[in-house]
Amino acid sequence: MRVSPQTQMSRWSQWPRRIVAAGLLVLFVLPLAGWKSDSSYESVLKEWTRDDEAYNWTGIEARLVWHATYLSSSFRSAKVERYAELYQLMPTEVIRLKEAEQADGQKFDTFFISIYAGSRVYPDIGNDRSLWKLVLETSEGNQSEPVSWEEVPKNQVTRTLFPYIDRWSRLFEVKFPKSINATTKTAQLKMVGVPADSTLSWNLSKLRSETRQSSL
User: For the purposes of burial, counting CB atoms within 10 Å of the CB of 65, is it exposed (0-12), middle (13-18) or buried (19 or more)?
Assistant: First the structure.
């Protein structure tokens, strides 16, 4: 599905400017005061993020390097709380963001993706998404393709929330029709096509069990 320029002006690029400014202050001032990173958020980010690399060993080149974070209910909650802590959001802003995240999570399975794709043979694959194909598969046998690819700006906000972002990657928020539910045991995000074949896997049963135990 082709995303219009209007659609690309997403909530990622519409955060209040004072939030970004406050984020810069936090990043540069608080470390000097002995600030410690939010290990709770980092733990949740690690739980819901997968990564892989694919190489063409004949030409010794990286065809695909990517990270994907599944925006599960627990991750969405942790992300909003991270915003609230770092950027000193007003309570009304926190409520608004949590409601928006909850509504989105009920309609879509969403992934935040940082991806580099390149090749000397196919030099345009990093810029031409028509050469990429993403498929979401679940343990129930459901297969779906994205209903939207939305490019996300690479700025201080996204770099703070997703520290695996590097200078070569492009960022996307990719939405699939809702197919992951409370009984889904596993989910796989597959990249197939010209760049390379690569699969990222989430053991959802294990992740839910660990989340329940940590909350006790």
Answer: buried
